[in-house]
Amino acid sequence: MAVQPKAGRPRTATADNNVAKVQRILEADRGLTVADVARKTKLTLRAVWTIIIVHLGLVLMCARWIPKLLTSDQKLKRKNACDEYLHLHSLDPEFFESHRHGR
Which residues, in sequence order, are CB contacts of 69 under 8 Å at separation 6+? Predict the structure, then answer.
């Protein structure tokens, strides 16, 4: 059974040029809201949300849009930081207790 194209206007909001436009805007400032991006691109909130989540694969964390998957470099930096913390803990088990809550 072949899929028949639907009648009506084709989807243009999530076209490649709009996806690229949203990506450029978010790369310049990851702190923007969906409404800010929609105003800048003159797209609907739903279209911007679809582009951000589905097409760009971003998630919202701490009011910033970040990649859902880490790059190899980001994973290595995170591993190195964890190794450093483990080393500090092995030298001084009370290290984290004394640095908790800015003490």
Answer: 57
